[in-house]
Amino acid sequence: MPVARTRSVALLGMTGSIVEVEADLSSQLPGLVIIGLPDAALGEARERVRSAATNAGCPLPQRRLTVNLSPASLPKHGSGFDLAVALACLAAAGQVDPDSVAKVVHLGELGLDGRVRPVAGILPAVVAASRAGFTTVMVPSANAEEASLVPGVDVIAVGSLLEAAVRHGGEGDADLLDAFRTMPTEQRPAPARIGGAASEVAAAADLADVTGNTDAVEALLAAAAGGHHVFLGGPPGAGKTMLASRLPGILPDLDPESALEVASLRSLAGEPPMGGLDLRPPFIAPHHTASAAAMVGGGSRVIRPGAAPRATHGVLFLDEAPEFASSVLDVLRQPLESGTIRIHRANAVATFPARFQLVLAANPCPCGQYGLKHGECTCAPVARRRYLARLSGPLMDRIDVQVWVPRITSAIRLDGEPPGITSATAKERVGVARATAAERLAGTPWRTNAEMPGPWLRGAGGLHPGGRATASLDRALERGAVTMRGYDRVLKLAWSICDLDGATSPGADHVGTALALRKGAPR
């Protein structure tokens, strides 16, 4: 029998590579050998595949089977190759149609009893198969809903190796096949939703709940309109967390491509999307004890996305930001500029998208009372400086909107205050502003004002207002009050404020407001 072939997918970060699984049957001592740089879990597939085939009623021949995973130089991880290895072996033995097996990409883990078990990362694997030109994939029944989210791909769901073999023209005992079909489908354990309770709170929160602080609300709208990063400073109880949790609710819905990317990241992290694509932006709020690996991603064997990649196309909220380790905060500096995260290992580099809105919230000092009219700060001056110094200058220079959120006092008449803007109204305004920016940026790789490169903005883009409009900003640059990067970010923010107002080009008032917002939170 000639060498039988089928396909599977090896994932490295979000990137999937097609792996050709070859099986050769020879007249030597019985055995199953897997070559092609498998890891420990994949190497153990020898025993899983042989036992699963026997218990499924389609035993492998008592001869030597050599399975090669090509390209051999590409590292392969996990048990998701089991189904492909088993069907390649059965095709080499002549028990299934080799041509049928060769046309399908197979993903799934095998149990010793012959059932096909679900695996993590099915969605990005199916996306990779689709981009490589394959139109049919075979996946575990528990992963079928997730795999069907990819358009243009026929998904074959199987619950057992015997069912997979029959799908490829093999013969099987009808009673045994019925027995497998009556078994309950093995489901993946439902993990806690990414973002935890914070995501649920953000989904139900309304901007109208914010009392007072109209300046902070308008700053939040400007940040949402342009996709800008935000720093919220203020005493405890001023409403910083309330404001941050309302930001996802005023962002526009994701387009299908972005929603698929978010769902793929969730799949890699162990949270398969349920009930179709979620078109709402994610809201990720890690605890301040998170490590650098938890923030950007990592892992000793399989590289998983961290909090920052999982917040792609959404909001990454770091509450009590100075309580995070400085090294953890500074790992975000490069992603804030490039929009990607690259995790290097000795034999591979994993790449994750990281185009998110960063929101930082901080108290003015460890006790939180510094600067309050009727508060008494108990912190030493050196303690206050050290506290906010954890937010490094290069990190803060990447934050476009820096707002001081004052505490609401009894001087504000809560009873007679008009109701604030609702999330629905704010979302509509933000949507119009983003549509204006998208129309202006048509034909470029960028969709929001925050994504525009500074040199393009001032040069080829022709979006520098110039003249009297930027006079205050030019003086700030001359005095050293802003860096050149800060100069560009103020211009981007001015365009966002301009889009919210419905103006055609930023004026001096828009640039002045943007400059004030950037310097609005004292440090």
Features:
523 residues; alpha/beta; five-stranded parallel β-sheet; 18 strands; elongated
Short description:
The protein is α/β, with parallel strands linked by helices.
Write up this protein.
The structure is a single chain. With 523 residues, this protein is α/β, with parallel strands linked by helices. A hairpin with a 5-residue loop joins β6 and β7 (116-117). α2 packs across α3 (82-92), α19 packs across α22 and α22 packs across α23. The longest helix is centred in the last third of the chain and has 18 residues, at 423-440. Mean pLDDT is 89; it is low at 190-194.
Helix proportion range: 25-40%
Overall geometry comes to elongated
Largest sheet data: 5 strands, parallel
Which structural class fits the helix and strand makeup?
alpha/beta
Strand order within the widest beta sheet:
11-14-17-10-18
N- to C-terminal distance: 74 Å
Q: Mean pLDDT, nearest integer? A: 89
Determine Rg (CA atoms, Å): 28 Å
Q: How many extended strands?
A: 18
Count of alpha/pi helices: 23
Percentage beta strand = 15-25%
Itemize the secondary structure elements and their pairings.
Layout: E1 4-12, E2 15-26, E3 31-35, H1 40-43, H2 45-55, E4 64-70, H3 82-92, H4 98-102, E5 105-106, E6 109-110, E7 116-117, H5 122-131, E8 136-140, H6 144-147, E9 154-158, H7 161-167, H8 174-182, H9 197-204, H10 214-226, E10 230-233, H11 240-250, H12 256-268, E11 283-284, H13 292-296, E12 297-298, E13 304-305, H14 307-310, E14 315-318, H15 326-330, H16 333-338, E15 340-344, E16 349-353, E17 357-362, H17 381-389, H18 393-396, E18 401-404, H19 423-440, H20 454-458, H21 471-479, H22 484-501, H23 508-518
Parallel strand pairs: 3-4, 5-8, 8-9, 10-17, 10-18, 11-14, 14-17
Antiparallel strand pairs: 1-2, 2-4, 6-7, 12-13, 15-16
Helix pairs in contact: 2-3, 9-11, 10-11, 10-19, 10-22, 19-22, 22-23
